[in-house]
Request: fold
Amino acid sequence: MKKNNVHFKFPKTAQVPDRFRNPIGKYTIRRNARCVSCGLCAELCPYGVHPRFDIYSKPLRPRDYKCIGFKCKENDYFCIDRCPEQALTLRLNPILETLGDYRWTAEMLIAHWEMAETGNLPVVDLEYNLGNSGGGFDKIRFKIPDQRDYLDLRDEEIDTSILLNKRGDGRSKLINGIPCYGGGMSYGSTALPVMVARARAAKLLNTLTCTGEGGYPLELLPYADHVITQIATGLFGVREETILFAPMVEFKYAQGAKPGLGGHLLGDKVTPEVAAMRETVAGNALFSPFPFHSVYSVEDHKKHVDWVKEINPGVLVSVKVSTPTDVDMVAVGSYYAGAHVVHLDGSYGGTGAAPDIAKKNIAMPIEYAIPKVHKFLQGEGVRDNICLIASGGIRNALDVAKAIALGADGAVIGTAELVALECVRCGHCESGRGCARGIASTDHELGHMITEDWATQRIVNMYMAWRKQWCEILRQFGLKSIKELVGRSDLLVHLDYLDEKERSKYQPAPQAELII
Amino acid sequence: MPKKYHIPINTANPRQHPVGKYATVEFREDCAGSCKKCVKKKCVFGIFKDNYHHMSTMGEPEYLYTCLSCFRCVQECTRGIFSRVINPEYRTLGDEYWRPDIINRLWYQAHTGKIPVSGAGYRGPFVAAGFDSMWTDMSEIVRPTRDGIHGREYINTCIELSRRISPLTFNDDMSLASEALPILEIPIPLMFQLPENLMINQQVVESAAKAAQGLGTLMIIRPEDYSDTLLLYARSLIPGLTCDNAMDYKGLILNSRVVELALGPDIENTIRRIRGIKSDIILMIRIPLDPDAASRALAVSALEVDTLHFYADEHGKELNTGHPRFLKEMIREIHIKLVNHFARQRINLVFSGGIAMAEHMAKSIICGADGVIVDIPLLIALECRLCYRCRKGLSCPAKIDSIIDPQWGSQRMINLIGAWHNQLIEVMGAMGIREARRLRGEVGRSMWFEDLEMESFGPIFGKRKIAGLK
Reply:
């Protein structure tokens, strides 16, 4: 079982460069033919934008994704002004308008690539805390803190761990080092190196990741203490031993990207390896029909929970549900059925392919579901006995913190981990051979574009950068542990609920019109 | 179980390259020329296959309509010569309501008949005007009956266009005492109507009529658009008449199952005359969706008519007012008014104007409609770009003004509606509802922005200070 290691130390961050030759940045720098290769720009730039191997080096293409842009103008090392030949031009990268969307803006994507590369918060002026969606988390802000509350603590002294088992039933408490764990992405929907890397990163961060419903590759066994076995309606890869491996088993009743619709792995993605893992036929599309045909009541659900607990006496049980109108009743039902974790998956998230109509329209956004369930569980007097986890459209460290302040204990992250691996959110996970960037593909070529080492460190880096933000928020409000933030909605404001004068004190919600 | 409703979907290729969202820009002056690692050859989706053979000629860059936006060419080119922009042609599609992405997805559905599917979550605004400020509900465990574990649920999408039969009464000898009204059902909650002020020719009309017949639904048509070729589809056509001209088209009335009559001053007499020509005809009354729509609906519901057709403008907005409301609110108002006056059960409501996506059909029904009438999407299925050049008398870039094979045209429309039907079933399945008729006015199976804000955020943040969505 996963050890509740109180002496756990967070992993070190390390530089993990982009896989591709031309990383995308916010700015572009062009060097024209007037350049005489004097090397002054390479000497001046502290960010390494102008690579130069030696004094005889020919001018190389600038690494413009590292450029901090126009704000550099105030520095005496601003290469554009200092170039004696005026051979350099700086522009906002026009490609940004083709990248990102209302929820994950181009700047948020680029910032997360930078976090994954460096393990630090971006030095470039990128808006990575707010999307452009015009509602929900993008209109919620933390209150301006009272400076007297500030705690002068180092990050190492701040506790970002969460307890997954609050029932006091004698099973493991299961402590996560960070208030997040990885969402279920199945073997077949993502590349094997990605799955393994997520598990390795989970081990390093003392958190968990989830198999998704595609079987349990044996490559995950070294990290088994950090891998949740998911049981979904297709029961692919669900066997006694895969339940015994797991510190936590997740029943997936529904998922936010396609609530009420079940899963569908297209035939192209069912390679011989995937088929073997799922014990099916290669090339045939696979369905996880909705709902569980053995569950039509809370009592039926309790039978499922008891079944798993009987097989593995140490295991915790998580119940993943979507966000219908009666999500509060579903949550309390799950609690009384014996679940340790209720995992709400809101409608705007998801990583895998899903009908557009479902993603946009079915079930409520997670921002509404969290306080609704939190308050209902409080009213029922059981909130302190169950761990409430939120997912579905939680994109960044601030979203996680806001979700916790709204009432969740922690969050499940899927998309952001893929973004750390350079997902561009093109949305074509399902097309032909799968993801062209090798993240969500089991194709014999594309599925091996990523190495486990590279991906592991990128995910670790991103979470370590996020941790810096969580620590800063906690310090500002005089909190030593993220557990103290749970349900502290009094620390939040929503721009639409403030009068104009009060609203002007906060960063306005981005409102760019995008073409999607 | 009775036979399932099935829509025959067959791929119907576009006649010209659909306008794609992205265009790849190449700075060819920086190109190495004959690079062995050329990313064009490595494109996973093969979109350059017609292009890289001619690289040596260094011809003009071309737009790439099928780019799937993976950015690998941009990021892997050894000389970094690639960049991308939004295709300027894509920006010109449609208008603020009929957005480029809606048009592009409608083309895709007309081409393939498939539901649009994508990965990586939802990418639009949190909430927006119109239908985008409501969500449909789902159930964690309830699902309509499935025929086989991987089969499609048995979900009935049929609606009635005929008046409801009130409780039957019987004579002493148990013979039927109440009048048995004619029954007319259509298997999908939508009908057709070609937009009046866009490019319409005889072949477009024939394509739509053929598609309506193939789908088992009906199409409203102006009497002057009737031609001999349309006689084949007469049972699928609804002549749109007025009180002034109704008696000029007695033949059409006799040949049709349904007649639409525009609301006019002499409506009661005209209804009587039409029923005099064909007593069992289904009568649909066409009413503008304006501030008086609800009171008119109540008044007309007292007449012997079967269905009321309210038409909004092409953006789904209320007519004849300086502060137009959207279709969603108007449907609610009319539906509730009729419910409150015990008239809703007698009569059917269909709405047109601004129905642009499958979800609009489902949401209209939730708001209280029995069905919707589709107009502009039929032309978009024929590759219309909504450039509105035809309104200025200019040529059509989609060549809708040239020869259109009705077989191709009707298949494109059938594919589009097939995809919509499948999406309606997905949404209804998620809600656990297996009858489109049970969805009517079922707002309990939906969630509205204002309600969710009040319920979830109200206790935390207090009173909302900003009205509306922005």
Notes: The CA atoms of residues 179 and 410 of chain A lie 5 Å apart.
